[in-house]
Design goal:
By secondary structure, the protein is an alpha/beta fold. The chain has 2 domains: 458 residues, Alpha/Beta hydrolase fold, catalytic domain (Rossmann fold, 3-Layer(aba) Sandwich), CATH 3.40.50; 38 residues, no CATH class. The chain is 30% helix and 16% strand. The chain has 17 helices and 16 strands. The strands form 3 sheets. It has an 11-stranded mixed sheet with strand order 3-4-6-8-7-9-10-13-14-15-16, with helices on both faces. A hairpin with a 2-residue loop joins strand 1 and strand 2. The longest helix is centred in the last third of the chain and has 20 residues. It is globular. The termini are far apart.
């Protein structure tokens, strides 16, 4: 990396000094051809090589989405998007960024590849809650990526299936992620990284994306470990969970409904519309004004099964995984596990699926009033993220696979009293407290050092234990096993707790729906 230049498969790049001059930053590297024109709704294609030296000094555009941060009073504007309206937005969005402490190309440093969240509808890789330079300073190479979202990333339609029958269906955003992972595998040595030590990580929809990549046979060879933050929801029969994936047929019907509303008579017409206009059409033409929703289907090519089915069938393989959630988001995710019973009558109806274990289930619930039933959703046995995380750890342990579980409960300061909201752990895990507006105190920075050190150690070795970047010994975080089911709790300190398998949780575990 002489004079912070590298040569990759598509040409030569000139990096820039980071805010920390020990870090070299390469922004806006194209990892696939612009998905525009005839490449709209097609799998990502190779980058066209360039001549000369390409200056990698500016981030690429964010994917087309609702402009983030327009409302200064909105919670997420201050939290994530204070400069959101100022960033460029384009359908031409397939760019990634590399942050490296390496001075030479042969240092073989471990690699973090981060997939941003946002419900597959929004988000971008340079949100304020990540300090990638600070993470790189701890001895890893960081790669952050953009990918197609919403209608551009996940629309299915019979015309598209006919046009490219051998390609995956309706998963263009996921295929972008895969293309970025493969690009990293092929090119990261030029930046001082080790292609055999790539960890993929994400939160929320980014965590769901990590689960999808873990489960796809097309992605398996290209990374060795995964971090899943607030992303795993296990479907249970007694809550009528249906999973979050669709069939190709149902996904195509959603695309047909949009094309019909837009009066498109051909793919050429749909591809000729300006991307920002098309995005607005999707909203204005939908029945609720919020946009048609497009779900990536199980297509038998990229996705051959759901991530839950892949987990239960041991198709994730021996890749170590960290799973966890924040305490303040628990209620919001119960909706993803199906309709929870709200009365004794509904609980009685729910119990019918247990057959000859019905009475045991009702007794384990311990409810005698409607108010008791409503409180079930807060219990570890019914709270979707909690029981799903425990279940994932148990399934992995039963397969002899390595997992570490966590619960993030650090109370977040501020006059708005936000609690431990969805994503509250991100500036701790990725060491960005100094970038945030909140009045964090010294002990918060101590916790950030601890949490981010666990993450970095896991990226380096596949095990979160070890030292902080200041050489301090971290509290031991035990691998989750059947004989020693532990979970790390981050609050004012980092300390483990034992997970108790209640009779109710064991009963519900036996009713997990597989293959959905």
């Amino acid at each position: 990396m002489e004079k912070r230049k590298v040569r990759i498969e598509s040409g030569e790049l000139q990096g820039i000094f980071g805010y920390d001059p020990r870090i070299t930053v390469f922004k806006g590297i194209p990892y696939a051809a612009p998905p525009v024109g005839a490449l709209r709704w097609r799998a990502p294609q190779p980058v066209k090589p360039w001549d000369g030296v390409r200056l990698a000094a500016e981030y690429g555009p964010m994917a087309v989405q609702n402009v983030p941060g327009l409302d200064p009073k909105e919670f997420w504007t201050k939290e994530l998007h204070p400069a959101g309206p100022e960033f460029e937005m384009s359908e031409d969005c397939l760019y990634l960024n590399v942050f490296t402490p390496a001075k030479k190309g042969d240092e073989k440093l471990p690699v973090l590849l981060y997939i941003h969240g946002g419900g597959l509808q929004g988000g971008y890789p340079y949100e304020i809650e990540f300090d990638w330079e600070h993470m790189a300073r701890k001895g890893i190479v960081v790669v952050t990526i953009a990918y197609r979202l919403g209608l551009f990333g996940f629309l299915s339609h019979p015309w598209l299936s006919e046009e490219a029958p051998e390609e995956p269906k309706g998963s263009y955003g996921y295929l972008d992620q895969l293309a970025a992972i493969r690009w990293t595998y092929r090119n990261i040595e030029a930046f001082g990284g080790d292609p055999e030590k790539i960890t993929i990580a994400g939160q929320s929809a980014g965590a769901g994306s990590v689960l999808t990549q873990l489960s796809s046979p097309m992605a398996k060879p290209y990374f060795r470990a995964a971090i899943v933050q607030s992303g795993i929801i296990m479907p249970f029969r007694d809550t009528a969970g249906s999973g979050r994936n669709s069939t190709v047929e149902s996904a195509e019907k959603a695309g047909e409904a949009f094309f019909k509303a837009a009066n498109f008579r051909s793919l050429e017409e749909a591809r000729a519309v300006d991307a920002l206009k098309l995005h607005e059409m999707n909203k204005t033409l939908s029945p609720d004004g919020r946009g048609f929703r497009f779900s990536p289907p199980i297509d038998g090519i990229f996705q051959t099964e759901t991530s839950v089915s892949a987990l239960r069938n041991d198709h994730w393989g021996d890749k170590p995984v960290i799973f966890g959630y924040t305490t303040g988001e628990l209620g919001m995710f119960n909706r993803f596990s199906g309709k929870l019973p709200q009365s004794m009558a509904e609980l009685e109806a729910c119990a019918e699926v247990y057959g000859d274990r019905k009475e045991a289930f009702l007794e384990a619930c311990g409810c005698s009033t409607d108010e008791d039933v409503k409180k079930l959703g807060d219990s570890d046995a019914f709270c979707a993220l909690v029981c799903s995380t425990i279940m994932a750890g148990k399934i992995r342990a039963d397969q002899g696979r390595k997992s570490w579980l966590y619960e993030f409960g650090v109370q977040i300061p501020g006059e708005d009293d936000p609690g431990v909201y969805h994503g509250a752990e991100l500036p701790f895990a990725y060491d960005a407290l100094a970038r945030m507006w909140r009045p964090y105190q010294g002990w918060h920075y101590d916790m950030a050092r601890i949490v981010s050190s666990y993450w970095v150690n896991f990226i380096k070795t596949g095990d979160p234990n070890g030292l902080t970047n200041y050489g301090e010994a971290l509290p031991e975080w035990h691998e989750f096993t059947l004989k020693n089911p532990k979970q790390m709790v981050f609050s004012t300190t980092a300390a483990e707790k034992d997970i108790v398998y209640s009779e109710l949780l064991q009963l519900r575990e036996g009713q997990i729906v597989t293959g959905v």
